[in-house]
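Hi! If you just cloned this repository, the fastest way to understand the data is to look at a raw example. We've pasted two of them here, unedited. The first protein comes first, obviously.
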Amino acid sequence: MYAMKYMNKQQCIERDEVRNVFRELQVMQGLEHPFLVNLWYSFQDEEDMFMVVDLLLGGDLRYHLQQSVHFTEGTVKLYICELALALEYLQRHHIIHRDIKPDNILLDEHAPEVFQVYVDGGPGYSYPVDWWSLGVTAYELLRGWRPYEIHSATPVDEILNMFKVERVHYSSTWCKGMVALLKKLLTKDPESRLSSLSDVQSAPYLADVNWDAVFEKALTPGFVPNKGRLNCDPTFELEEMILESKPLHKKKKRLAKHRSKDGTKESCPLNGHLQQCLETVRKEFIIFNREKHRRQQAPGSQTLDAESRAVSQTQSKLQDGCNNNTLAHTCSRGCSS
């Protein structure tokens, strides 16, 4: 069983988001790690682009925080180690996530996995930003709220002043080792912050960690989601069924009706620019099949079809830091594709 994400092509074009979707697909095709939500397949039809990924039924950490789950120090310690392995893997692939937070960390019955990765940090960002976010996440899991009271509407000047004058308050009930680790992750100066796996592994608090066992998910987690309940808010599922103008469960009937109208007077052709953009998306979209790719990468395999060549080119561009070139094609009026 897998989870599937689908994105409407026309809406992506209208919102100028096709480039971001292609970048997400490119990045995820080149990654595979125990603590990432891995991409298995990507495909398309007339309406949508699809991503098939690991299914994690344990819910995200934000949901469990909202359910007043108390995460023990032992649980958070293991989460820190598992997420540190994921960040080190992304760092080796020259990727900055930029959005490590409870909302983007999903649970299976064993461990947390990071979802939705991003290439490039943008002006002013480098790898230490993800390790800062790891510290913020660990703090929130332990205490129930973040070390700084910052919201999307908080003015930048207020945020900067907050960092200058406010100090992070650590609970007196936490062990000294955990506090020392969090302080090093939440160091304001990126140059002085723990910002690599080796940095984290050198922390005295983690000296007793069997990192091979962490990687193999061989350690018993302190918190196990309840398998007998839905670990998410069902409202989102209901909204998809009720409010979505082109719901997935009606796609087969809808497409069949659309095809039957093709070539008739009832057909309402799209405007030329949108049609051109849709055709560009169709041509540029890379179909991906991880199982097939694995077989072709196995020792003794000599075949490399067009799909595999496209994936190989994507991975080499990512490693060279030139992935933006793949997305440089544009429609006649500048619609990113």
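Ok, and the second one:
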Amino acid sequence: MKKIGFLSFGHWQPAPGSQVRTASDALNQTIELAEAAEELGVDGAYVRVHHFARQLGSPFPLLAAIGARTSRIEIGTGVIDMRYENPLYFAEEAGAADLIAGGRLQLGISRGSPEQVIDGWRYFGYEPSEGDTDADMARRHTEVALQVLSGQGFAEPNPRPMFANPPGLLRIEPHSEGLRDRIWWGSGSTGTARWAATLGMNLQSSTLKDDENGKPFHVQQREQIDVYRAAWKEAGHEREPRVSVSRSIFALVDDRDRAYFGVNRDASDQVGMIDENTRAIFGRSYADEPDALVEQLREDEAIAAADTLLLTVPNTLGVDYNAHVLESILTHVAPALGWR
């Protein structure tokens, strides 16, 4: 059994063929797709966060709205770039959205990926400390956020406050019990997966990672998961961790599917430089008739090792088509693989 969710990048642009032409379209259709996914029995609705882009840049209002319009489905991110985040305000927003959703948030965070502008986090008012990188800054923001999400008091109260305070040091409010255990780290390497396990975060592994040994993508990703789980056990955490992987998977069951994705049947891993120093491997997409698709997915070692699968969706094709994509996986693929 696996939890199966969708991951939307929330693209919008006034281009021919796009069903998502404005930011309003992107936001409202994401809510509508989450509602449709819940009705279909999908387990999670996740959004990708990018700044300075025609995508979903401010996740917490959207997560809260999805939480208010749904009742069961997990609601998450994949991922929030912590280079851009004030960790205390992050904790306030996360706590409020989680309470609105009834404790269903699953927040993926990370050091982020290459963005639309150079050092975009500087425009948000953040600078790495002397001798640190922007990745160090993201991890420092993360560690502070995890501390305050624990709910422990840390702030000295005013002796003459406007309103009465509870005794002792004050914490960030609103506090949502259990949210600290529902923080995931989006890891692109074996080293950061090990670091995430040490801090007690769940693991999100996407469709790309550092190419660390030249092996196929799904093998490297499975090795990353193995290292993460070993580090979790060594750290002595009491609960079981969760691990997700993301994939683009399309079951070709009608003429629309074949027109959109039939040309990608022979897709393979790709290798490239995502910046001047980082060689990355990009996992293949899967698109085929259901029987063939099932056999291909049986060979994906990382999917087999994960408890959660996030299906990336082509959101610009509209809510109805994306609901069809999800339903096709649940109906024609998941049962044959034992995911349902």
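That's it. A detail worth noticing about the second one: The mean pLDDT is 95.
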